[in-house]
Design brief:
404 residues; Rossmann fold; 6-stranded parallel beta sheet; 15 helices; 43% helix
Amino acid sequence: MRILMISGSSGKAEAGVAGVVNNLTRELRELGHSVKSAFFEDLLPKQTWPNRFRTVEFARRIGRYVQETGKEFDIVNIHAPFGFWYGWQRRRLGSQAGPPYVMTMHGLEERRNYAMGREAKKGRAEYFRWKNRVWQHAYHMWTYRWSFLTADQCIVLNREALLFLQMKYNLPPDRVWFIPNGVGLEFFHVRSFSDGMATKLLFVGTWIDHKGIYYLAEAFEKVLQLIPEARLTIAGCQEPEEKVRRCFAKAAQGALEVWPFVARAEISSLYAEHEIFVLPSLMEGMPLVLLEAMASGMPVVTTESSGMTDLVEDLHDGVFVIPGDSESLSAAIVRLCRDPELRLRLGSAAQEKMKRYTWQHAAKRTEKVFYRAMGVSPDDSTSGQEIETGEQSVHNAPNFPIVT
């Protein structure tokens, strides 16, 4: 199969959407397919339209690029919301427009509207003020909707999105597929759990309001009142250290360590050096950092929302907290800091579960969706694993060694 994978993220990014594309590209090639991945700067090195219309300009460029190169590929996989232009071409012209179109959607925009609308009422939505909200509903929501409504097949990264696309938009079960992200072997270290108080907390992610940053700052201040020895590392925030520190109280400054950028080669060691992972996001797709932290054996504290609910079972392999609630967040962190047996149980269970979440599994499931879009029934030998719809799920997870 000749595959074209297109993402609107930067190819220079080492995590997020780019990380998903790069990992799937590698594994699909291992399965014997020819894969070309293209990122924003590859297809649109220089924007000519105003930035607010960036989505439409890039989507239009994709449509033209596929028209020019379509005969080179059997399938086109475009990450939402940038596939709507090509999707319309396919609806209008059929196969003359180019090969079948498979959409991949990471998060649910309706979840963003819900979560950040609540935050806006609290004055905590820097990127979701009233003008942004109007633009979101009048413009961005439509680009997402037409991305999946015009697709031949849809891949989503959490069950919330799968159910929503079926029930809200009436997409049939054989057109929407839930395929979880994977995690690399490099994160599976043997972890030593301390018998005493845990003090090393870690947050990894962009420093933006929907990550729950205000609640993290408030919760950490409460944690310090009970555990003065606690320390919090904020890594990969992609913002100047001074901006991040301004979100925290003066009393917390000495207990903070801020790393605006972390190279992928260093991220595995970062997890290994910390004891508790904290991800208070209000909305996500399926965050790679959560899979990586769990694979490293870290006990995790995260919100009961979005793709986090597909990965974590409360008090079995992690702890759920109420989204947007600093009291719930601080109480969970303090409990884990004080309870070494709970940390050991949760961290060990999390690492064991993550053995099922390999990029090879994700690639095999993706492969089957691509074949379905092409109207081809793959041989059993090319794909030995079922993919999950709202109706079925089969996991055949191999065991693989823990890195020492």
